[in-house]
Amino acid sequence: MSRSLGRALPPDLLALLSQEDLPPLLGRVIPLITIGHDGQPHPMLCTYLEVLAVAPKVMRLAISMRSRSASNLQSRRVATFLLIDPERIVYVKCRAGAPPRVFSGLARFEISVEEVLEDTPEEGEGHVRLTSGISYTPPPRLESRWAKEVLAALRAD
After folding, report:
1. Bridge partners of 104?
2. What is the CATH code of the structural domain delimited by 2-122+134-155?
3. Which of 95, 99, 118, 119 is nearest to 108 (CA)?
């Protein structure tokens, strides 16, 4: 069952998504759901490298400008990030603002946080918990050209 944590990122999620301690998060996935042209949910797997919280109500997302998710965000402007970890499951419902800025083939979206929900087991589910989040290997190297381009896009004013 989901419970609202408010209309902004709480301090712990703001810190998690701030990229202040990025190396331990490399190789972990953040699913992103947008709405396709057919009205159906469209999933995309992002990384902690591609998402940056700049304030409790403002996030940035840098993804390929040719992706369907970028097109969906430009057209319909809504998205939900799923933070899935053994500690907790959180849904961050957002809305994209102005058209994205383009950096080296990346579309950087300014995303407004509209609601943050935490999913917890219902009483009948007992002490059921996830045992891991979603991860991949090998994790990106911060020294790679792609990582440098993504970080530059996210951090540009």
Report:
1. none
2. 2.30.110.10
3. 99
What is the tens place of the pLDDT at every residue in 59-89?
A: 999 999 999 999 999 999 999 999 998 888 9
Residue given tokens 């935490």 in the structure block: 118
User: Which two three-digit tokens encode residue 140?
Assistant: 């990106």
DSSP-derived secondary structure for 100-132: PEEETTEEEEEEEEEEEEEE---GGGTT---S-
Domain spans, the chain: 2-122+134-155
- Dig out the tokens for 116 from the structure: 């943050």
What is the value of pTM for the model shown?
Answer: 0.94
